[in-house]
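step: validate -> pass
step: tokenize input -> pass
step: predict -> running
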Amino acid sequence: MDINVAQQTDQSRYVITVDGEEAGFADYKDSAQVREFDHTVVHDEFQGKGLSKPLIKFALDDTRAAGRSIIPTCSAVERFISKNPEYQDLVAF
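step: predict -> pass
step: emit ->
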């Protein structure tokens, strides 16, 4: 299984593909130095394969590298951060 995650800046989202096929995405909205993650989806046919973790991890790592903080209004992103406290410093208060 060939998994790839990339940012699609023109659509304000990160996309995960499996063997070249879109498997899911994480939408965001940017304002100033804050990126709000508001919706994450793993398509039905790809659920149960553990794809949300690499998708969210890549998105958060990329956001950190860009010098932004985040607002996790998406429950999947919020859960990921609660299970991975090393990302807690990204959350804008």
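step: describe -> The chain is about 25% helix and 40% strand.
step: cleanup -> pass
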